[in-house]
Design goal:
Blueprint (H helix, E strand, L loop, with lengths): L2 H7 L14 E3 L10 E5 L5 E6 L7 E4 L9 H31 L1 E2 L4 H5 L11 E3 L2 E7 L3 E7 L5 E3 L10 E3 L6 E5 L2 H10 L3 E5 L6 H8 L3 E6 L4 H7 L3 H13 L2 E3 L9 H7 L4 H12 L1 E3 L11
Helix pairs in contact: 4-8, 5-7
């Protein structure tokens, strides 16, 4: 099986597969609008690694059994140069994202949030530029920016790091920490449940890295997406699988909306009507679990 065939069998949708030792993100069958897959092929073309963040806990390895995989000195040199070049590109992308952020202005009620039936209550630090809503992606400092158009198209800044980044909807004296994928989901939870603060991790593959980097403790619950459409079509639920990985790793709880046509808590807030806030409070708070310092693993390396 070729490397591309192995990627496609794992649900990844790569555009180009180049043996250059660089890491690439790509869409997956279950998340076609996101980059939930990652892969690298050595310059020798005989060894590669890949991961579908919704399915795999660890990296999957591919080898060409018909060729020698022992890298030559030239191959090792090319790998080193590619890594150095990738690091320079990443640093440049961070600077570009920060420059774009600096030229933006504080956001009002953006059409994307208005369409979701949300308000700006509790929102701090969002900006707007070129008609797009800008969400800071931080890891102690700003590393990247997520842009969201009025019709909901989401993009990360090309080349900037995303692993372990997050955006917080803070609340003084919050008794529960809620971890979720997207901004709209996080804002819906924050506005419906007055006892919580919310950590937005941006996608399912980043839930665990964000939780590990922040070393979440106290009463914690993952407010998961319920990808029931994917479950019906492909036999697995990416949102719940990713949430359960976090629960298994740090000992928190998992809450997800049911009996809705949509997939997340923002959809539930709209579909459940006037009783939605009280129902969300009951269901989310009931699933929160205590996470103690001994349960929290060391932050994952970026």
């Amino acid at each position: 099986m070729s490397f591309r065939a192995a990627l496609e069998a794992a649900g990844l949708r790569p555009r180009d597969v180049i043996p250059d030792g660089r890491w690439y993100r790509c869409p997956t069958d279950d998340k076609p609008r996101k980059r939930n897959g990652c892969f690298v092929l050595w310059p020798c073309g005989t060894r590669g690694f890949f991961k579908n963040y919704a399915l795999h806990d660890d990296w999957c390895e591919w080898r060409d059994d018909q060729a020698s995989i022992a890298p030559s000195a030239e191959t090792l040199r090319r790998i080193r140069e590619n890594r150095e070049r990738e690091q320079r590109r990443r640093v440049l992308a961070i600077h570009e994202a920060r420059a774009y952020w600096d030229q933006a202005w504080p956001a009002g009620l953006h059409p994307y949030l208005a369409r979701k039936g949300l308000t700006m209550r509790g929102v701090v630090g969002l900006r707007e530029c070129d008609g797009k809503l800008l969400v800071p992606m931080s890891k102690g400092v700003l590393l990247s920016v997520q842009t969201i158009t009025a019709d909901g198209e989401k993009k990360f800044w090309p080349g900037a790091p995303t692993k372990g980044t997050s955006y917080e909807l803070a609340r003084n004296r919050a008794s529960v920490t809620c971890l979720c994928e997207g901004l709209a989901t996080g804002l819906a939870v924050f506005q419906a449940v007055p006892q919580v603060r919310v950590i937005v991790a941006f996608d399912s593959g980043n839930l665990l890295p964000a939780a590990e980097y922040l070393q979440l403790r106290g009463s914690v619950v993952v407010c998961a997406d319920n990808d029931h459409g994917t479950l019906a079509a492909r036999g697995f639920n990416p949102g719940l699988l990713a949430a359960q990985k976090v629960a298994d790793a740090i000992g928190c709880g998992v809450a997800y909306p049911s009996d809705i046509e949509g997939t997340d808590w923002a959809d539930a807030l709209k579909e459940w009507g006037e009783r939605a806030p009280s129902r969300m409070q009951r269901e989310i708070l009931a699933k929160a679990r205590m996470v103690r310092p001994a349960q929290v693993r060391e932050p994952a390396m970026s």
